[in-house]
What does this fold into?
Amino acid sequence: MKRILLLFLALCLSPALWAAEGMWLPLMLKALQDDMQAQGMKLTAEDIYSVNQSSLKDAIVSFGGFCTGELISDEGLILTNHHCGYGAIQAHSSVQDDLLTKGFWAMNKEEEKANAGLFVTFIVRMEDVSEQVLKGIAPDMPEAEREKLVAARIKEISRAATEGTHYGATIKPFYYGNEYYMFITETYEDVRLVGAPPSSIGKFGGDTDNWMWPRHTGDFSLFRVYAGPDGKPAKYSPENKPLKPRHHLPVSLDGVQEGDFTMVFGFPGRTQQYLTSHAVKLLMEQTNPHRINIRDKRLEIMGRHMKANDTVRIQYASKYAGVANYWKKWMGENRGLHQLNALQDKQALEAQFTAWVQQNAERREMYGNLLNRFAELYQQQERIGLADTYRREALLGVDLIRLGSSFAPIASGSMPATDFTTQRDRYDAALQRHFKDYNVATDKELFVDMLLMYKQNVPSEFQPELLQKIDATEAAVKAYADKVYSQSILSSQKRMQEMLATYNPKATAKKLRKDPGFVLARAIQDIYEKEVAPVFASTDPELELLYRRFVAGLRQMHQDKLFYPDANSTMRVTYGIVDGSTPQDGVKYRYYTTLEGIMEKEDPSNEEFIVPQRLKEIYQTKDYGPYANEDYMPVCFIASNHTTGGNSGSPVIDARGRLIGLNFDRSWESTMSDIKYSPEICRNIAVDIRYVLLIIDKFAGATHLVEEMTLVDEAAATEKVELLEVD
It folds into this structure.
């Protein structure tokens, strides 16, 4: 309560500072309520987050642990992004029945498709447990001892909170371990695919438009969560029933206007707002440029193979999308950090911090050598940075090498036959997944180019002896690839399954240790464990300690400033307004896009910009139903909410708690917001809920799904009242 009070006092001192940015824990919203209401919100903090009564938080789920979803009916109907449901849609697709291309709509609940491994998680409640976790822990306690004590307390607090229930508990550090919060969760594992538009709508604009504004993508899909007969989580069963949620979001037909209050509720993945200049410099000058170059080559190879073969196109669709997403994000991030002078701003803050530290002896004792030590540790990480980047992005971007790495436990020879038998199904399933989306020719070309880039950019001291013997020429690497792919069982599903079918601890391990593909995978891992991992093992814990002290010092230095915690995949609320932007000189963006814009972008020769015939018919006849404005059919809009990865699928909610849009992206100019936010530039991108409804109803004919929702049309209701008064 003391921290919440300080939060409130800080807000009262300078509220204008907090309106534009921040990812707030819902239990902090009482301190933010006045500011949110000043911007137009009609709700109370209790309406948004409550433990004792249903609230908005009860309609929000973590979707699969990597996206956000929201309940939009009292029958468990979930709305999330098309790209969040992409893996599930792909899993049900084949060349003969390509749901990615044609879309899918269950016309009744019996047609809904189960998805093994997919789950959604609700937050039951959250609690500040900092006092219990940190009691008696002194600032100078050795880090290893501190970690051990914290872990033990987290385990005990979690056990006590969930014992005798079906709930889960997660306790996470905030502000680098200065505070800890517990999240009590409820997870449902029967989640079924209900509907998805064709990729020509759900991915309209493809990689060309990814991270860009203006945008015209109908990035949504529908799922349904099922519960057991008692309403509690249950494994898939035909007897399960649609979940009756504590709350579902009403859907607004009123649309959005510039300046409208908006709120995004979800599970943002990771931000790093408090990085020092040393970390930002390393990211901008080394890590990002090399990651971008590696992924550029991977995309070029995969894209060429996908265009030449429909089977490969489906196999690599999800991989390609995953690689492309952050490739483009990192380019925008570097551009934005340069544009905002992020490095210079960090250095200026550190100079201010240093001056503040020097003002008294107690601060000098606590923080005096802090920034110098940051510099030393990041210099150590810079030395091994290329080896780490090229291992992760290049070598492990090759399926054969990544598969080989996963078989290290078997190759050790230490897994008894009885243990293997219990894990056989897991290995079989992993092989099925791997080879379902695998093409030897594609992987082999990736192998050659990734190995070349690795050899040409990574210092030889961080390359395994096996690779040092191969010349850094295309001819030499191709010859090596011919040997590996012709001889290695890792390139053949049949040979891998035969190996597992005849498992013998010693014989199987011996076979793997002689396999050229596994030998390479093992050599790569060995050099990493010998030369690279120890540097991270020695520097990362100390960096964590330094950041804990640094952030504590910043909060002490600026006691009148509100510091929001970095995102860490926990439930957050961010708020802002519907607003266009001027991201650069001479460029001014309107806050919305329309169906007319889709027709302007149409290009039948480019698969990213194909417009389905049915959508063209709707446009030509203006058959928009109740979903259009007076003079246009809306598609997407932008707002100033502070979002990041993990917010994909998050609801955009209006001042009255109604669903007005579905968050799916940021503008390219905004991608630096994980490190540095700019209220003038940063914009989240949402598909207008009215376009979602148009596609479900008029395009797909799945009107029964719209009828399942709670639609709210205050504008129409007001018009009717006025007409009655006139009469």
